[in-house]
Amino acid sequence: MQQTPLRHLALSVDEPEPGLYHWMILESEDALKTWFVVEASDDAYDTFSEAWEDGASTLRGMGDGQYGPRAEAAEDESADPVLETGPGVDD
Hints:
The chain is of the alpha+beta class. The chain has a domain at 13-60. The protein is 14% helix and 26% strand. A three-stranded antiparallel β-sheet has the order 1-2-3, with helices on one face. A hairpin with a 2-residue loop joins strand 1 and strand 2.
């Protein structure tokens, strides 16, 4: 079974105010040069550990437990186009 590549994901915890911790899951799509936030906690946590554990749980849920979070399969550019409207489609 051929699989798509693993996503380049990282978990980070930030403390924007003393004693308030937020987790963020970051992703890079350009050889790890630039990172952007793909998921983040809505609420603050009282400890770094609580934020880390909840972020790690979210990260684990983003992929298959055996193979990890994978990139979406690329669209087959050689495939016939899919008609959304037109003769035979709207009938």
